[in-house]
Amino acid sequence: MRYRQLGVTGTQVSVLCLGAMTFGEADAKSMMHKVGSDEKESFAVLDRALEAGINFVDTADVYGQDGLSERVLGAWLAARKVRDQVVVATKGRFRMAPGPNGTGASRMRILRAIDASLKRLGTDRIDLYQIHMQDRRTPEEELVRALDDAVRAGKIVYFGASNYAAYRLMESLWVADKRGLDRFVTLQAHYNLATRALEREHVPLCTKFGLGILPWSPLASGLLTGKYRRGQAAPEGSRLAQWKERYKTFDTPRNWGIVEALDGVARDLGKSSSQVALAWLLARPVVSSVIFGARTVAQLDDNLGAGDLELPAEAVARLDAASAPELGYPYDFIKDVDGAW
What we know:
Blueprint: E1 3-5, E2 12-14, E3 16-19, H1 39-51, E4 56-58, H2 68-80, E5 87-92, H3 107-121, E6 126-131, H4 140-152, E7 156-162, H5 166-179, E8 186-190, H6 198-209, E9 212-216, H7 239-242, H8 244-250, H9 253-269, H10 273-282, E10 290-293, H11 297-304, H12 313-323, H13 331-338
Helix pairs in contact: 1-11, 3-4, 4-5, 9-10, 9-12
């Protein structure tokens, strides 16, 4: 397993981060109903991940339901007595209680959410606390001050953004600099071979200001695992067989071209498609760690192969070409003139 700095911080994290979204058996009210792992299987996945050198686990208060994922992770940390071996990341911002203040990123809401996550995780601090999505109703200065206070109180060590527009992320960094406050050190965002819109604005911004990118859904909900083929239904038992409407949105010539190029590179290298898709993201210097989920130990073991896989330049170029996004204005105009944007 390789390790990298978490953004510009001095903390080292494994290049693979175990996503805990599937931990715990959620009931029918949750989007994770029937696609999660029970506590025994979740513990087995966590045990194997730690044994393989993964020291970074990401969860959120809304994963499962009523903080289920955080509670499972907290129970494992306590049972194994490994809290100081693991960089624990969680997120808050989405609805966890009724009423107008049961959601959002106001100072009142976020400080409450941090305390609730600390309790569920059974820990004295959260190593990386992330705002799950920007809140247009809350001024960034209010949010950054609240997070800075939580750092100074010892409740969180670092904080990061997730699902932010580039302009809003830049505003937050400016506020922190202007007021002498701690600032975001990471950006957790949707990024994979099939979804490269992040490269227009966010990747240049994060590169310039030293934010480490933490891609989520690196396998595009399973599309990039090698299970799916052009013109065929999703295999029974797969996540996309249950999420039929999402599978329909993936049925495009570009996506199948990416899948076929990925399969070709994987065959050439003797690796799985999942390993190559994860390794493609790790070839991006601005990526600190790639968040992937695993419902079973078998799924985890396959993905672990990306932990020390460095793709040849030719393979990266081949995948880049197959997945090249449409830039749109003004990026294509700038590229035509300057050769880059």
